[in-house]
Amino acid sequence: MGKVAAQLKVMPDSPDVDLDDLQERLERSLPEGAKINGFERDDVAFGLVALLPTVIVPDDAGGTDAVEEAFLGVDGVESVSVENVGRL
């Protein structure tokens, strides 16, 4: 079984969210077998900044679904979307 790298877009629920703290909470929420291979930040609008983590997950049924669900359960997260996916 291979691995897949997926870049996700995590939108905080307000411009007041501490992004460093949010990054740490996202890392702690990862399901078994997934890991984060770095973060980027994207200025969206009006002071809102999205986090763009690159997540490495096993290439099996479900793909990034478990990671997306885990991230959505983190306090301060408004939405999560998959921006890009590729095989390693």
What can you see in these coordinates?
The chain is α+β, with helices and mostly antiparallel strands and 88 residues long. It has two helices and four strands, in the order E-H-E-E-H-E. It has one domain: Ribosomal protein S6/Translation elongation factor EF1B (Alpha-Beta Plaits), CATH 3.30.70. The protein has a four-stranded antiparallel sheet, with helices on one face.
Which SSEs are present, and which pair or pack?
Blueprint: E1 3-12, H1 19-29, E2 35-45, E3 48-58, H2 65-72, E4 77-87
Antiparallel strand pairs: 1-3, 1-4, 2-3
Average pLDDT, all residues: 93
Q: Residue ranges: pLDDT <50 for 5 or more in a row?
A: none
Regarding quaternary structure, what we see is single chain
Query: What's the total helix number?
Result: 2
Q: What series of H and E elements makes up the topology?
A: EHEEHE
Distance between the first and last residues' Cα: 11 Å
Specify the biggest β-sheet.
4 strands, antiparallel
* CATH fold node name: Alpha-Beta Plaits
Strand order of the largest sheet: 2-3-1-4
Short description:
The protein is α+β, with helices and mostly antiparallel strands and 88 residues long.
Give a quick set of tags describing it.
88 residues; 4 strands; 22% helix; Alpha-Beta Plaits; globular; alpha+beta
